[in-house]
Structures are given as C-alpha cells and as structure tokens.
Fold this sequence. Notes:
Blueprint: H1 6-32, H2 40-54, E1 59-63, H3 69-79, E2 84-88, H4 91-108, E3 115-117, H5 127-132, H6 138-149, H7 165-168, H8 187-192, E4 200-204, H9 205-213, E5 224-227, H10 233-240, E6 243-245, H11 247-259, H12 268-277, H13 290-303, H14 305-318, H15 322-347, E7 353-360, E8 363-370, H16 374-381, E9 386-391, H17 401-407, E10 413-417, H18 423-426, E11 427-431, H19 443-461, E12 465-469, H20 472-481, E13 488-490, H21 496-505, E14 510-514, E15 530-533, H22 544-553, H23 557-574, E16 585-589, H24 593-596, H25 600-605, E17 611-613, H26 616-625, H27 650-662, H28 669-675, H29 681-693, H30 705-711, H31 717-730, H32 735-743, H33 749-762
Parallel strand pairs: 1-9, 1-10, 2-4, 2-5, 3-4, 5-9, 11-16, 11-17, 12-14, 12-15, 13-14, 15-16
Antiparallel strand pairs: 6-8, 7-8
Amino acid sequence: MFVRSRSQKKYDGKRRASLDALSSSFGVLRKSFPDYEDRPQQREMAGEILRCLTGRKNLLIEAGTGVGKSFAYLIPAILSHEKTIVSTASLALQDQLVSKDLVFLQKELHQEFSFGILKGKNNYLCLKREREFAEISKAYVRFQKWLSETRTGEKDELPFIPEFWPKVGGDSQDCNGRTCPFYDHCFYYRHYRHLFKKDILVVNHHLLIYDLLSDFNVLPFHKQLIIDEASEIEGVMCHVLGSTLSYPRVAWLFYRLKGLKIIVDPLFPKVESFFRGMDIPSQTIFPITAPIIEKLQGLKKTLALNKVVSTLEKQKKSVSDDELWDRVETTIGYVKSLTTDINDFIEQSDTDRVYYAAGNNGALELKSSLIECHNSFKDLISKYDSVIMTSATLTTGGDFVFLKNRLDIEDFKERIIGSPFDYRTQAFLYVDNDLPLPDKGNNELFQQESLKVIEGLINASRGRALVLFTSYKHLHFVSRNIKIHYPFKSQGDMPPPRLIQWFKDTAHSVLLATATFWQGIDIKGEKLSLVVIAKLPFSSPGDPVYQERCRRLGHRWFNDLALPSAILVLRQGFGRLIRGRNEYGVVAILDTRLITRSYGKTIVSSLPEMSIVHTIEDVKRFFDSIPSTAYKKKTKAAKPTRMKRVGSQDAKGISIVVALGKSNDPAVISEIIEFTRSSNGNERRLAASALGKLAKFKPEIYKAVEPLEGLLEDEKPQVRQYALKALDRIGAVNKELIERIIKKPYEKDYNISKAKRLLKKAK
Length: 763
C-alpha cells in the first residue's frame, strides 16, 4: 500500500491552496475588470502555469489570440510567492504590463505583491556623460530644462528624443557601477536599488540576454522566469551575443580621448575614410570582402589602440580626482573592447558567428551575429528553477518541433491552448489566385497588379485596414501610387506608437506597414477589419544569418527552416485581426504561391479554420453581411419577442417560409429571419429549418446566427431542435448557450444529445 510522505502531503496541500486562490482571483476579474470576458482557455492556461511554477517545471505553452496571456501568467506568478522575472519582446509591452495589467491586479487581488520594471542603461540619462557633453544648441536648451525637472532620468519622459542622446545616455561599457563618483545620484542605479524588494520584475528580451552576457550580474534576482513572445528569443539572443563596429562607436571614443587631453584630431580623416570614404553597400555583404579587411587592418595600425591603453594607464596613476579617474578607467575598458572586436573582424575565425558588412546612414558598418544559440539558451535557463515560454505563435504544423530544434529544448512540458474565437463565423480568408507570382522576374508586375487588388479590398472594407509588406520597396511603391478615398499613412511617417494612435483615432483609416507591425499591435473593435498580407513572409536570402543557417542545413533548409519560420511570422500577422468575440474581419493574402505551390496547404492548415474566398465581391458581401450588433457588448440571450406578421394567416405564413427555404437563394435569408420572430411556433421551426438548408451561402448566412441563437431559448423544443441543427450546419457554436441547453430542466433527450455532439465537435 502506497503511503504519502509528510512532505508530499504538505506539497499537495500547498498546490490545492494555490489552485483555490487561482479560482478566487479569476472571480475577482469577473467582478472588477471592465468588459471582462470569462474565457475557459485563460483559466486553463493559468492553471497549467501555476502547476509548473509550484512544481519547478519548465513549460512551452502556446495560447491562441484572445486567450488573455498576460493575466494567465501574471496571476500564477503572483500566487507562486516566488521572485519572478517576466521578459517581453519590447519596451512597449513592458510598459503595458507595468502601467496597466499589474497596476490593476495589485489593486484588486487579495494577494499582496510588489512589482517593478527595468530597462537597459541606454534608456536612462548618465550624469557622468552629460557632465562632459559640451554641445550647445536649441535642442540642448530644451534638454536642460527637462533635466532640471526629471526625477527618473528616463528617455521616455522626454517630449522629444535629441540626436545627442547616445552621448548622454547610459552605456554599459562606460560604467563602473559602485565605483563611479555619480553612483549615489545615478538615475539607473537609484531605480535599480529598489528592485531587490520587488516580487515581479518586468524586463525585455535584450536585457535578459545582456544579463546572460554579464554572467547574471545585471538582473537583481533569478528564481523563476516567464518569457512572453518567446518566438523572438532566438533572434534577440543571436543579435545581442554578436558585435558591431561602426563610425559612431569610434567617434565617441575620440570624443572621450579629446576630453582626456589625448591628441586624436589627425586620426579623424583616416576614420572618415574607412567608414564613409568607401562605396557604401546598398545590400548586406556576406562574407566581408578582402579589400574591406585590408583597409580595416590599416585602420587598426593607424589607431594604435595598444599605445592608447598604455597612455591611459600612465594617466590613471597620476590622477587624484575621483571623477577623472573613473573616466580614464572606463575609457580603458572601452578601448580594450574595441580592440577585441577589430581583431575579431580581421580574423573572422569564430565558426559560431557569421560576419558581414552593411550600410547605415551613409556609413559602413561591420557586424557579427551568432548563428546557433543552443548552448547560450541552455546557460540562460539553467539559472532558473522554472522557465515558462509562451506566445500566440510557438508551433508550426501543430507541434513545437521547430522551436525545440532551434533552441535544442529538452525536458519542457508542452501545451497548446486554442483561441476562444470562432474564426469560421468571425473571419474570411481571401486568397488571390490571379496575381503573378511575386518572384524576382515578376516583381515590378506583381507590385503594379497587387496595388489594384489592395485598393479593391480597402474599398470593400471601407478602410479600417492594415496592409503588411515584407519589404520597404513594396511599401513605398504602394504608398506613392495608391488611390483610395480613405485617410492613410505609412510606416515612417511618424513614430510607431503615434502611428498606431493615429490609426485608432481616425475613422476608416488605412495603415501601410512592414517589419515590427507584423506583431504586438492590439487594435480592438471594428477599427481594424481587414489585414492584407502582400507576400508570404519568407526570410530574405540577403540576410547573412539566415543564409548561413540554410547552408548548414543542406537540402533540409526549406522544410526545416524557411517554411516554419514563414508560418510563424504569417500567424503573427494574421493575429492582428480578430481581438474579441464580437469582432469580424477578413485576412487577405495576395501571394499566389499559397495555391500554386505544394507547401501552400501546409501554410493554410497552420491558420485557424475558416472559409476561403477568391473574389473581392465575396469580401464585399462578407462586410455587408456583418450583424449590426457585431461590435456591441453581448448580453445573455433573452427570450425573443414574437412578432405576428401583419395580414397573414398561419397557413399562408407557413407556405411562404417553406417556399423561401426551397429557393436555394441567399437573397431570401433576411426575409426568412423575420419568421424567426413570428408568434407562430411552426413558422419559427420552419424558419430555422430553412436557414439550415441555406447554411452553405457564406458569408450571407452569418446574419442568421444571432436570431438562431435566440431560438435556443424558444418555448417549443422542436424549434430549439431545428435551431441547433442550423447552427451546426453553419459552423457557429456558442458553447455557453449550448451548455445551457444541456443543463435545462426537463429538456428533451434529442436536444440534449444534439447539444452534446455539438460541444464535442467544437472541441
């Protein structure tokens, strides 16, 4: 006989208490959170995360759009009573968690907890660097006024971002921490010192990887880690663990050396010649060419950085001023780091990196990036008792194999939580089948022809559109030539946060975007009703990291890397559309490879199941058919008011609805819907039956969903029966209403049986 130990009993009791607290917390959300929608998927996700945190397990968990990930991982983190780091993909997501979600939870939950946010040092003013900055301009006068008033020194507080910020903002390579004379008053460290007392710390992926790079000396505690938008972590890790050699980096060093009375003016022409004097590549060069390496060797001799270090070491010995000593000390470290990177680019001997050259603002940049990050990722997660990785897009083809292979993930539990949205009734997928293939030979023709389709789609949706591109060239072509009657802006017209706010504030607006706008954009309601994806988001062959990964994979490059990577990005773009249960919209993909290539079926199967159309007329009909109550808050279904048709005897009404049901014409759907409100039970029953027969006419039939759901509360069981059948054929299953049928006292067995089959089918 198995007997549980005292420690096991204690653990089981603690887990039950945690799960009870979790249930109570979601009860608080239902009562207190504005417009809260009870989502079983959110509670399911939270329960799984809480079990892993309390059991010190690692977890991969994909949560479909609309689950409400932030509450689903924040509440378990709070209830776990352990120090938790939450890492997000961007500063904007950090701010949302701290300024909205955690503020609400701290106010409403019974569990007391504290939280904080940490950004990189470059987001905070450095008092040492500002003190030695000597530029006088109108921008600097404005900056000085802000400096006299700020309490945090955060860049985001500034009403404008001055060009000189990199010279006055914090820099890890130019920081001596506690030994800095400005340490006690440092904005960064003054904020940092308070974080050790916090229960939850919100950071971004870059800072998380810098912590790894510093041998875990950046973040103040390491107990359990939640990585949101986890699909981004590989890209950030490979970037942060790489290096960059640029003109601003060397120019800033000269600026510092001049302040330390070291003569560098004769060196400026040589540096200018290397970074700005050569032909600046319009595209990435991989590998770095021999002429560039040869000139870099010449620059190394010219800079004579070893002599600079020797000079600084001698100067440091004679310095008595603490502030000057710190400046010399950090400069020595800066020079040594620059020397290491120059030697690395000359030798290019690290087989774990790819080295390449690119142009940036009219100057040459040399870059290196990690190709694979298996070992680095293992080093990162080994520091934590429990690691949770989540996103709306972690799987390709229904499993985590791609992500696990990319990061060499082992010993993680796996869960996939579906979206609460019913895409079969809420969305259409438009796939163009007439446009030319978007390959190099047809690129200009594709741009011209796709512009006409984009214009037609926007007119069908009456604006309210986000058009996503995979290249700036295509974006700029459409921006210059588009002819629509709706207000539109392009990425680059203003900073991204302001651009998104403009879109929200401007009726029937259109936003043309690329890159970062494929993810992280949360626009609810009918403001965004159309997402156009111009091309399948395959990685650019000009990306040296991607190119090297493909080379190493050999013949497996497409199936093991190119295709799953494109699917993940496509799913992210798709997720911009539906953000609530009462939202409707269309995703349009203009890339005919979805039809002409064998992998097209794999891509479509990775998207939510929904109807697919190929004409703009179908899209227009869909938008015309959207229920008028689509964006109004739903209330519990009430028993519908019965309306007797004026001047109609029962027999005549019955014959009319029967005839309409046999017409096989979607144009009669609106007229049949009128019979669902009849005072005659037979007319209501026949109306439900007729609507079921017309279920194939989508999207027109979707306007019948709400009247049919109303019939589920009908007084006559046979009316309820035919309403269930019709909803089944349409593919619209409101679980809450169906469960109500099952629980209804004295409900007929045939209705209960049908309702149970519907629920099982929905799962």
